[in-house]
Amino acid sequence: MADEQQRLAAMMAAQGGKGAPSQEELEAQEEAKRSAEEQRRTMLAACMTSEARERLARIAIVKPDKARSVENMILAAAQRGALTAKVSEERLVQLLEQVNEREGASKPKITIQRRRPNLFDDD
């Protein structure tokens, strides 16, 4: 029994203690997520006009996935150096239309056909 515990302890040490993450590791991961999100918000603020940021914030309330896609497009363009000026509200609308076209092509359209009740049924 003692040999099994020693082997188990040796295996855990060899793996680097890859058991459940400790509280410190979880806190470090949360802090890394928060700092990455803060950096993302800072970059978006630098790349967008205040009107465009407000509009994107309103969109994010209703459709967070769509807002995230637009944010990703803006950040990618900024990293490539493709942004010559701040993203205006008009440019934001164009980006939203691009996202809509892309998502519309990938999602199947569902139509519901309801049967009409036969009011003059002789049963």
Automatic annotation (TrEMBL):
GO MF terms on file?
DNA binding
Q: Where does the record place the region Disordered?
A: 1-39, 101-123
Q: SUPFAM superfamilies this protein is in?
A: Double-stranded DNA-binding domain
Q: Name one GO cellular component term.
A: nucleus
| Top-rank taxon, per record | Eukaryota
Q: Where is the composition biased (Basic and acidic residues)?
A: 30-39
Do you know which Pfam families this protein is assigned to? dsDNA_bind (PF01984)
The record's family statement is:
Belongs to the PDCD5 family.
Q: What is the protein name given in its UniProt record?
A: Programmed cell death protein 5-like protein
Q: Which organism is it from?
A: Volvox carteri f. nagariensis
